[in-house]
Amino acid sequence: MNIFDQMKRYGHEELVFWYDKTTGLKAIVGIHDTTLGPALGGCRMWPYDSEEEAITDVLRLSRGMTYKNAAMGLDLGGGKSVIWADSRTDKSEPLLRAFGRLIQSLGGRYITAEDVGISADDMATVARETRFVGGLKETSGDPSPATALGVLEGMKAAAVMAFGSPDLSGKHVAIQGQGHVGFLLAKLLIEQGARLTVTDIHPEDTRQAAEDLGAAWVEPDQIYAVDADIFAPCALGAILNDDTIPKLKVRVVAGSANNQLKEPRHGLELMKRNIVYVPDYVINGGGVVNVADEFHPDGYHPDRAYARVRSIGKQVGEILARAHREGLPSQQAADQVAEHRIHTLGRVQSTYLPE
Q1: Are residues 19 and 107 in the same domain?
Q2: What is the pLDDT at residue 348?
């Protein structure tokens, strides 16, 4: 892998590698774009198969955060970090504190928060070494409830496009992933009267809780072929690809996972199949909206934050309408909205102001 070529391809400003010999920490921070403000994005702890896979993931995820933060109307740039380790066996206080030292060394160009494999308690440990942390329990807390609520609101907007009504009662939703967000989304959908089929790669931790909700369970490789109304990817990315898209029997794809499309052309393939695809970085923006409220001049206010999270449905509706009107894949329409904001405000902020 030529790292500079990959940074040029994705449009990155900075890629930071950090190894701590005491704890064995292997971490990468991707700062994609700081036009709108410091780069905000969570930290993912994952046992990648290779160094190249870890680099590719942080590049894709941090670029997605730039577009997400811009689409959400936040004065924040995009970044992401990954810790190359297994969260179930490798996590420790010294390792997390070593990661905090890395974040502090960046001087505020990147603000971290939790993501896959990292909890609010873990972020509290990281915060012992740096002030550039969001989503702590004493402020906005776990972003998962806000993310799940945003996905629900976005799903309702997609249902209007596909079925003519936001009512999810009686709709069959297939959920891939029963982690923090996937399980909370399942609970919200049950409250809406939806029928669920779910899966997860860790059935020993999740199956019983999902079945207690009343959800049907299938093996992970079977979720794509479930005959449902809506498919909600709530696990890892690149799951919409040449192998999986032909299996889909749904009218809507709307879930919390990042980078769901393996390649941009897969968005076009969904459009050709008359499947309404909700761009991931728009529908899953609730968590970052909630965390970003911590940086409001008045401090964090949950009512204000959650009111903004609930507006995600309106944003999704406008993007889907634009895509339909202009004959574009929905992710392309979303990209145009985000890029316009970055370009316009970047020019506004280029005006010199005396200190």
Answers
A1: yes
A2: 84
